[in-house]
Amino acid sequence: MSKNQSPIPILISRLTHASDSSDASRSLQDLIDRTAPIAISSSSSSNNDDFSKENKRHKDIESLLSNEECLHALFHLMGTCYLPNPNLGSDGGGDRSGVNVEDGQSLVTELLLNIMKRSNEEEEMEDRSSGGSSSTWKKKRVEAKYANDLLSSTNPSLVSCLLDLLCHRDNGDGGGNGGGSTSYARILSMGLLRKLILYQGSLTQERILSAPDGLTRLVDLLNLDNNEEEAIRNEALLLLCDLAKSSPVIRRLLIFAEGFEKALGIAIETE
Question: Phi-psi region for residue 156, left (φ > 0), alpha (ψ -120 to 50) or beta?
Fold first, then answer.
């Protein structure tokens, strides 16, 4: 499927002013396509073209991240399943609920994960186990900047919305249609949180600790015990391990929240 070649501001406007669920979903999918990482070819004939596409991708990402209205809409949709109503007046008039977007939480999380991905995902796996070249460190600085931009927008906070998504279970309709978050969306959100910790560990920790019951809600995910939610529980365990490794404060809080006891119980259960 070819990418929508409309200027990125037009795609953003179509999303923030979407009139119904299908319109919002199409706009989100167009943004996902435009921010998808480029597979850089090893062939010299196509290499320059690939780098040109990648530079265009980064310009599109920067335009999206600089648009506060767009970030507000994305974060709100992630946390509530609803795209906010742009016509809501300061006097409180209008439909406060906005547009209920089917699979909107999954689509938003896919979009934000795209922003945090490299052009070649193998490079990211490689530099986790090596010192990395100067070009690798340059790329890591780009992802660190994008993570900082996402975390710096606080109305609402990305981390608070991610926690809302994680802790609001689907009611069984399978659509994430205002009845809760699907397992797929929740697993994607775990991946996004781990990316944020990788590139902006201190700021992500700060946002988790400042969110209402932030760390407690993550620890509570370790209580999930049915087969369908086991993957979410395991991802939560990995995420808490990432946090504990890098923060003595969080390690102490996990002790008080019985996080280590719950983690040990999971380890014993899986033996």
Answer: beta
